[in-house]
């Protein structure tokens, strides 16, 4: 008897400000109007997706000292948007990225416990760390933690938040008819935490929520990030969507679970993935080429190259060759607040690799940026895309995918209407939700309620 088919997990990323969206497309809509969020979320729920994911932007990015042109629409607050979406959806999980460097455990735990109550058990927290002093200037810290300290703070932050979630042990809550005040035993909500990062005590004022704790996600490809996910997360966002790279990442992260007393099914691996659909594979390939050209204009290509070169390249022709001058090493002063900057820790080595690629393929600056930046993960007819997704999941390159469409808010519609039914026919994706909570959607057990602690 063969190995049973794995069930695929699908989620949708509302992309926010970025260079993924094709802004010039006539169907491109607002990234801040609530109607856009509603359309996107309700499409994902209609397709029986596990959850919607919102990224976080704590400061507008800058290029050459000016606000980057892709950031002019702003960054709505994550909790406000997710709380509003809880009222217009019934089953869809609501995942938000919240930073552990600049926030406090009590505040974040209270917000997530509230969201879990408001949504009936659909909240999830993507725990991230900050990486630049530029963002830190907006906060009390006035800077940022060194790399070696960031994950230490994140681990203690999450542990402290869990202590707050668990301070209500799940017992009965009674209401006093005379006063309308909830009555509990004297230990309800009481907590004490003494640690290197946090020294707090008091009483958590939100009763235990439907999931007990929100589902915890982690995004990070470093060794520290993988270890953090293996120890504490319920799911990790992966960067790899090819079979070979995906299987290597999958095996590495899942292989770390045993040392924390966990089994492989207790952590889901969900890479981000883009897609382009067409009636035929050939049509989809042509459309994908047009999408990439729209995503990477000449100005965008020069801007992206400046992330690596750390110098003003505005005089260069995007349809010409790469600069002969080398990148300026050290702190990046041209592009600030850009996640891509930290990806190039050795810009001189990156420049050498890109020059070799450009020479071998006869690529211009723009063509090189299109070649080396994110490309569509799945391209083809609905049948081709459904087969590709299923194959990667069944071969343990992923447990599912977080889809990032190039149009907002309607970019998910075609996938929901054409690819999802084919996955359902294959018997690898749900036709109906099996339970009310996000833990139900992901097949995760409820967190164990520890023995009550307190002062």
UniProtKB/TrEMBL annotation:
GO molecular function annotation: nitrilotriacetate monooxygenase activity
Keyword list, A-Z: Flavoprotein, FMN, Monooxygenase, Oxidoreductase
Record domain Luciferase-like: where: 23-394
Domain of life: Bacteria
KW Flavoprotein (keyword) present: yes
Keyword Flavoprotein: yes
EC numbers on record: 1.14.14.10
Membrane spanning residue stretches: none
Matching Pfam families: Bac_luciferase (PF00296)
InterPro entries: Diverse_substr_monoxygenases, Luciferase-like_dom, Luciferase-like_sf, NTA_MOA
Family: Belongs to the NtaA/SnaA/DszA monooxygenase family.
NCBIfam families (alphabetical): FMN_nitrolo
Stated name of the protein: Nitrilotriacetate monooxygenase component A
Organism: Streptomyces lavendulae subsp. lavendulae
């Amino acid at each position: 008897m063969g190995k049973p088919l794995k069930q695929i997990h699908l989620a949708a990323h509302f992309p926010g400000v970025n260079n993924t969206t094709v802004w010039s497309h006539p169907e491109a809509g607002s990234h801040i109007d609530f109607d856009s969020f509603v359309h996107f979320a309700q499409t994902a729920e209609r397709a029986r997706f596990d959850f919607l994911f919102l990224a976080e932007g704590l400061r507008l990015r800058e290029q050459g000292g000016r606000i980057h042109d892709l950031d002019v629409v702003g960054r709505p607050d994550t909790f406000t948007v997710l709380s509003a979406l809880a009222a217009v959806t019934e089953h869809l999980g609501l995942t938000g990225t919240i930073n552990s460097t600049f926030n406090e455990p009590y505040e974040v735990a209270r917000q997530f416990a509230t969201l879990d109550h408001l949504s009936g058990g659909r909240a999830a927290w993507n725990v991230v760390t900050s990486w630049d002093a530029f963002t830190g200037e907006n906060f009390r810290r006035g800077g940022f933690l060194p790399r070696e300290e960031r994950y230490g703070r994140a681990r203690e932050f999450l542990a402290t938040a869990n202590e707050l979630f668990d301070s209500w042990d799940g017992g009965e809550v009674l209401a006093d008819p005379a006063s309308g005040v909830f009555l509990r035993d004297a230990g309800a909500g009481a907590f004490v935490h003494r640690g290197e990062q946090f020294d707090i005590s008091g009483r958590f004022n939100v009763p235990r929520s439907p999931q007990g704790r929100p589902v915890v996600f982690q995004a990070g490809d470093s060794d520290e990030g993988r270890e953090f996910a293996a120890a504490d997360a319920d799911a990790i966002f992966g960067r790899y969507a090819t079979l070979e790279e995906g299987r290597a990442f999958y095996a590495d992260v899942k292989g770390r679970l045993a040392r924390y007393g966990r089994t492989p099914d207790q952590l889901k691996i969900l890479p981000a993935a883009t897609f382009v659909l067409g009636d035929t594979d050939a049509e989809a390939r042509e459309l994908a080429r047009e999408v990439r050209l729209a995503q990477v204009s000449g100005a965008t290509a020069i801007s992206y190259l400046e992330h690596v070169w750390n110098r003003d390249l505005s005089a260069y022709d995007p349809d010409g060759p790469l600069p002969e001058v080398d990148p300026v090493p050290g702190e990046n002063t041209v592009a600030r607040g850009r996640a891509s900057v930290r990806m190039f820790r050795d810009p001189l080595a990156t420049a050498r690799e890109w020059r070799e690629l450009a020479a071998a393929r006869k690529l211009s600056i723009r063509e090189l940026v299109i070649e080396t930046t994110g490309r569509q993960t799945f391209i083809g007819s609905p049948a081709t895309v459904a087969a590709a997704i299923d194959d990667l999941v069944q071969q343990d390159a992923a447990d599912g995918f977080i889809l990032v469409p190039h149009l907002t808010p309607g970019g998910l519609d075609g996938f929901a209407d054409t690819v999802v039914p084919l996955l359902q026919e294959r018997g690898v994706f749900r036709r109906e939700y099996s339970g009310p909570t996000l833990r139900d959607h992901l097949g995760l057990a409820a967190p164990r309620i520890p023995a009550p602690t307190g002062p």
